[in-house]
Amino acid sequence: MNSPFGRYLLRLLLLPLFLASALPAWAQQTTHSISGRVYDEAGEALPSANVSLLLPDGKLRTGATTAKDGSFVLRGITSGSYTLRVSFVGYKTLTRAVQMGSKDLPLGTLTLEEDGAVLSDVNVVAKANEVVVKGDTLEYNATSYTTQQGAAIIELLKKLPGASVDEKGQVTVNGKTVSQIMVDGKRFFEGDPKVALNNLPAELVDKVQVMDRESESSRMSGFSDGNEETIINLTIKAGKKRGLFGTAFVGGGTDKRYEASAMLNRFTGDNQLTVLGSMNNTNNAGFSDIAQDLSQASFMYSLSGGRRGPGGGGGRMPGQIDGIQTSKVLGGNLSHTFNPYLILGGNLLAGNTTKDKTTASTIQNILSSSSTTQTGKTSEHNDKDTYAGNFRFQWKLDSLTELIISPQLRYGKGIGTYTSDEETLNDATNALISSSSLRQRTSQSQTDGDLRIDASRRLSDRGHTLTLSASGTLSNELGSGTYLSDIVSAATGTEHVDQRIESTKRSGEYRVRLGWVEPLGKGFFGQATYQIKGTNSFSERKAFDADLTGQYTVENARYSNEFHSDFLTHQVGLALKKKGSTYDLTAGVNLERSNLSSYTVVAGVNARSINRSTTNYSPTLRFSYKPKRTTELRIDYFGRSFQPTTDQLAPVQDVTNPLVVYEGNQNLLPGFQHNLFGRYNNFWTSTQTSLALFGHARYVQNDIVSRTTYDLTTGVRKIGYTNVSGNAMVGLGGFFTQVLPGKKFSVRLGSRNQLVRQIAFINDEENRSLSLRLNEDLTLNYRNSFLDINLRGALGYYNATNSLTSVNTTATKDYSVGSNMNLTLPLGFAIEADGTYTTTQGYAAGFENDQWLLNAGISFSFLKGKRATLRLKGYDLLDSRRSIYRNITATSITTEESNTLGRYAMLHFIYRFDSFAGGGSRSDMKQQGHPGPPPPM
């Protein structure tokens, strides 16, 4: 490691040893415990009540939940003044000032009073509250949303107001992407929410809690560093809290469809152990791949030349599937609390996915005075393996000092094939401009390693805090494949390429951030930060022609290239926080100095090197207002500067495709992005009404956009880049739920809307595109002891206008009505059915979509406690499902359709088992209270 980057990384890897030797010197202060019991007014213990110990500034010092006998112990407490807060659903919150001295503090019995207003609602309502607002947490009652027997968590989330699941299994709630799943406050397969979403049975879940979690560095300092993530915490039903439990099912069906899954859990106190495995060919990928789709490997450029272009605001219609996928996964997750000061968590996972996808597409390219239409068909196959492991070591040396070390390692490999046939016509004359065909086979392996360290030391009870956050990442990617293409155009005649491509990519990144928090008095706090961040990347692409024996051994320098880049930034920041009893206001500014250096070699010729330094600033503002536990208003603003990429400054040319020429612009300026987020959540207990509103606005100064020149006669497209101000986006949405009189009916109204403005240049003329996307839905639900049924309707609208008049876009409209029904019958029988009718308008010819989707099934549960279930279900009974995608940008209008699973039927056998500690029964467990949200992690 003689390079500067190697030396930085070596220092980072030695940092844990330094901390391990230095931090114990901080741990000399004596600590004690606070204990007590929580009872109700009748003298009955309240298990699972939340007990929180707050610092004078209102931040959480530590917390716990009461045991079955109502007892709790808070350990590792130093002398000083604190506030103890005890809460439990249906009872008034108890707040008490405590003074910690030089010995343990027993508080005896703490009695909670019933909250009459809440209890009167809870006791008389047959239908539980669907959504409750608890501070900054949205809590969904899982029992209010019926799912089929054996359904995974992801099927439950699809029913939640404000939540959506895209075709890749990515979950968003109120416009924010969910990046982590937790189970009873413990991290579950860190960094890969798909594992929980596609493998945990929905029937285990009592509550679904959605909240924003700060990074470890922000949690330690109390100041946001901009790395907040949205997480979901799943609370397990009281009957599943302790002991050994699990679910297994196996299914076989028509068209050789199959599904099998098994999960074993052991939850004991604060410890959790989960082992799971699954396999299926029904598009249920139970994990996230590290490897990309190898048929579209980045070192094998496509003939369309569109991969590097700016994205648009499109999206596949809800519920559509991307090809047909087979997957297998085996994994384990552990969270073990050795003592209140030492927690170890981690997981291991191995998986395989194969995907087969065929796509028919139509792309209308917008030109200044005319347009072209590109039609094509593609076919791809991928077979990928993924192996991953990560661990989290959390050590609280004392009540003032904390250290977290999180290593991660991922490895992926796979093979893929890709075929494509396309042609482009002049819309005005219908004359052929160009045609192309591509056949490629690829193989690839990728290894990623990551180490993150977070540490903090509180130097006084007033809030003086020193924080350290450091991370390092290494990535290595190797790829090879054969590339066979033919391009016919007026510019080049016929261009034939038959080569073998070998690719190597290496990259590394390190980051160190130091922070100091200073209490200023009267609820004010100040923070100063310094951060250094560096990245290094190298890529090499070698092309080989066939020799006389047909082997690819002759290196072709014209089709080869390499790229080197180093990026270094120094950032200093200042922030001021004011914390009141009902609000929290933070404002700050960061100043950043960055340096970029890179050079490329294309076709054996050294391109001009790039060396540039820039200085940028980025302000931040955060306001949170919580007048009561069930109401929250939050507004966030942050500005972010960004640099031109090396591709935009001096792109590596894809010489295998003479129809696309990239031109760099070394005069590009840094851009600046303004972002404004807002949300309002409220829950009215007396009327059981929930309201959640969210908004996001973005405006970009000096954005980097494409400048395209297209020759209609030759089909050659030149793509360059320029700065422009005015690109913007506004998104508004939310949901409203209301339980109607009689308590058996409820209504849900959801809305997600987005307005996007994009600017691009086509043949030196500016095109301003303004696109509007509306998604509205209304659901009426009825539930009694044996029937759960809903009626829903939805409207989707998508349209765009362009300042260039060469193309007139037609608005697309999607209308749907449908119903879900679950009927419980005597003797263990149950019937489930769901149907949806969808009709569309405005799509390209051949893509109009009128379809009836109908799924239906019958199940029979038997054995003691209905542990076993047989279920027969038919999917897409009318065989009418279609997967259609539409996207509009300032340069093109894209419509495409991919293959789907189609009609099939499946017979499942489902078995549930449990063995509770201490001989407790299900009825015993159900008497426990409902837990609240977990303490902040």
UniProtKB/TrEMBL annotation:
- Gene3D superfamilies this protein is in? Carboxypeptidase-like, regulatory domain
State whether keyword Methyltransferase applies.
no
The residue ranges of the Outer membrane protein beta-barrel domain are 458-911
What's the domain of life for this entry? Bacteria
What are the Low complexity biased-composition ranges?
A: 436-447
Kindly give the Pfam families that the UniProt entry links to this protein.
CarboxypepD_reg, OMP_b-brl_3
Keywords tagged on the record: Signal
User: Which residue stretches belong to region Disordered?
Assistant: 436-456
**What span is annotated as the signal peptide, if there is one?**
1-27
Q: What InterPro entries does its record include?
A: CarboxyPept-like_regulatory (IPR008969), OMP_b-brl_3 (IPR041700)
Can you name this protein?
Answer: Outer membrane protein beta-barrel domain-containing protein
